[in-house]
Design a protein that fits this description.
Blueprint lengths: L6 E3 L15 H12 L3 E5 L10 H17 L5 E3 L3 E3 L4 H6 L11 E5 L6 H13 L3 E4 L13 H8 L2 E5 L10 H11 L5 E3 L13 H10 L1 H17 L2
Parallel strand pairs: 1-2, 2-3, 4-5, 5-6, 6-7, 7-8
Catalytic activity: O-phospho-L-tyrosyl-[protein] + H2O = L-tyrosyl-[protein] + phosphate
Pfam families: CpsB_CapC
Protein name: protein-tyrosine-phosphatase
Length: 237
């Protein structure tokens, strides 16, 4: 692992039977095992905010996963969190403890509709920061409004951070989207790379090719976006 002893994943759907991620406990453990095989040793579990999903259920199932990891002597730590779909009541729910922050920190992983307007993203960023949290925009490559010049820098200046999926940089030189994603990483806009793993046969943690490009293409950012910044979340720095 180049410059890293291991990797930290801040976006994953490994909690079983709560959203479109792992369907059962064994699948949760299989995903974790696959992630470990590629160097990931710390994972923040981030199930979607679902209508009837309560933090207590997430925590209970994460504790079950932790117990099984311990039984099987798997070298991986799991932390609580959620991928929060932003809405007018999201901040209130976070403050009430109805939505989970990342690893009980001041950071939240927030997602939007891909077609959300730039003004909406700015307003959400402002409101989240004003409430005392640090927003990390999940899979930032999906937001069409950020494809225009200077949009990243404007949101960053407000205090937001950006997470990109490893899978989004897997394309070759003729893949326009992958080229755009790689350019944003080279420009220093991306703070976190993550798997966004869901289930076996659908968004597995397959990051080997992406890691090879990152270790060569953006050597100066490699440790920051695969470990250091994520570790700051866990430390709540």
């Amino acid at each position: 692992m180049k410059d890293n002893e291991y990797l930290i994943d801040i976006h994953s759907h490994i909690v079983f039977d709560v959203d479109d991620g792992a369907r059962n406990l064994e699948e949760s453990l299989k995903l974790i095992d696959m992630a470990m095989g590629q160097g990931i040793k710390k994972i923040i579990a981030t199930p979607h905010t679902m209508p009837n999903l309560k933090p207590e259920e997430i925590i209970e199932k994460i504790n079950i996963i932790r117990s099984k990891i311990h039984e099987r002597d798997m070298d991986c730590e799991i932390y609580t969190g959620q991928e929060i779909f932003y809405s007018g009541f999201a901040i209130e729910k976070i403050k009430k403890g109805e939505y989970l922050t990342l690893a009980n920190s001041k950071y939240i992983l927030v997602e939007f509709e891909p077609a959300a307007s730039f003004s909406y993203l700015k307003r959400a960023t402002r409101d989240i920061i004003f409430a005392g949290y640090i927003p990390i925009l999940a899979h930032v490559e999906r937001y069409i409004c950020l494809r225009k010049p200077d949009r990243f820098t404007e949101i960053m200046a407000m205090g937001a951070l950006f997470q990109m999926n490893y899978s989004s940089i897997k394309g070759g030189i003729f893949d326009i989207d992958a080229y755009w994603c790689k350019r944003q990483i080279k420009n220093g806009y991306i703070s976190f790379m993550a798997t966004d793993m869901h289930r076996i046969g659908g968004r597995e943690p397959d990051i080997a090719n992406a890691l090879r490009w990152l270790s060569k293409g953006v050597e100066k950012h490699f440790r920051e976006i695969t470990y250091d910044n994520a570790n700051n979340i866990i430390l709540n720095k």
